[in-house]
Specification:
The complex is a heterodimer of chains A (126) and B (226). By secondary structure, chain A is mainly α. Chain A has six helices and no strands. In chain B, α1 crosses α2 and α3 packs across α4. The relative contact order of chain B is 0.09. The chains are: A mainly alpha (126), B alpha+beta (226). At the A-B interface, α1 and α3 of A face α1 and α3 of B.
């Protein structure tokens, strides 16, 4: 009976941990996405300094969780987001409106897809 | 990660069901759940080992999940006969009173050639000498000959042979196993006498030396080119 309790506890622990991770990723990327959208709104108002500040803030949040994300997500996905941030920041500094908008949209999509892939949905399971 | 967890459970149960449907013959010597575990776990470990772009946890979470499910299944199958029958199946009688039970063989995808091969390996040439042949849940065949076809044992012949017990290895490829020597109640002096009696000067010249509970010694010296 002891063995079945231990095995059941491990299963429950893994399930809760993985489920918490999917909720955390969803909330974390949601926050980053809202910062990037706010940055884009500022850029449309030609306030490049504010857009730069918001994007750097999003990137620093991403960097702060670098190890966690690297351990739990596919490295190709985390690398793509990192590259996306570098690209967006470069376009902000060059004040290239059209290019920035496209790169920012791509980065937001990557973050949304990252979170979506971790959600416990029938679509993902199948 | 939670997707990996749920997928692992679904695939594990699906493959167990698949192995059960394949019939006992394909199972080999393992129970279905053990076979499935062996099939999946090696692959799960190999993927993150080879692909550095995949987190190690991608392999660890499914392996932990599989081991936990296997533990639960093994405990449940020990506690419940019905659950065990569902998971591993029941033994099938394929020969009864010297007659083949063809339906049972078909149900288990067991061919006549396979049966004949298994019977030959067990030294049975004539099916009519069998009271029962049973296909066990691990895919092995057990045979029970008619009483008049069973080889006689010492008791049947009213003889009382000496109980030699378990022979213990005392020298293994030139190495003296002192622990075994002491457990049998012998010492190095006894061993040296045995070596001398068999024409050896040193334990290094001996490949295998065993002694049973009656003190009978088996001696095999090393070959020159070994």
């Amino acid at each position: 009976m002891k063995r079945i309790i231990i095995a059941g506890a491990i299963l429950l622990l893994v399930f809760v941990a993985t489920l918490s991770h999917s909720f955390y990723i969803s909330s974390f990327t949601g926050h980053l996405t809202s910062l990037l959208e706010a940055a884009e709104a500022r850029a449309e108002e030609e306030d490049w300094a504010a857009a730069d500040e918001l994007t750097l803030s999003a990137k620093s949040r991403w960097d702060a969780k670098g190890s966690y994300l690297h351990i739990l997500l596919r490295h190709s996905d985390t690398d793509a987001v990192y590259t996306g941030f570098r690209e967006v920041i470069e376009f902000i500094q060059c004040q290239e409106g059209g290019e920035y908008s496209a790169a920012n949209a791509r980065l937001i999509a990557e973050l949304e897809l990252l979170a979506e892939a971790e959600q416990l949905t029938l679509k993902n399971i199948l | 990660m939670v997707i990996a967890f749920v997928r692992t459970i679904i695939l594990y149960l699906l493959i167990i069901a698949g192995v059960r449907l394949m019939g006992k013959r394909q199972v080999g010597e393992l129970e279905p759940s053990e076979l499935v575990l062996a099939l999946i776990i090696a692959d799960l470990a190999a993927v993150p080992m080879q692909d550095f772009g995949i987190p190690l946890l991608t392999g660890i979470i499914p392996i932990l999940t599989l081991l936990s499910i296997t533990m639960i299944i093994s405990v449940l199958s020990m506690k419940s006969v019905k659950f065990r029958a569902l998971l591993c199946g029941r033994p099938s009688i394929i020969v009864e009173n010297g007659k083949l039970k063809q339906q049972e063989m078909q149900k288990n995808r067991f061919t006549v050639d396979e049966l004949m091969e298994e019977l030959r390996m067990k030294g049975v040439n004539d099916i009519s000498t069998l009271k029962y042949a049973i296909l066990e849940t691990n895919g092995q065949i057990s045979i029970l000959p008619y009483a008049d076809q069973k080889p006689p044992v010492a008791k049947d012949l009213s003889v009382t042979p000496e109980e030699a017990g378990l022979p213990i290895v005392l020298i293994n490829d030139g190495r003296v196993l002192d622990r075994n020597l002491q457990s049998r109640g012998y010492d190095r002096n006894w061993l040296n006498k045995q070596l001398k009696a068999h024409g050896a000067k040193d334990p290094k010249e001996v490949y295998l030396l065993t002694a049973d509970e009656l003190g009978r010694v088996y001696f095999s010296s090393k070959e020159d080119n070994a």
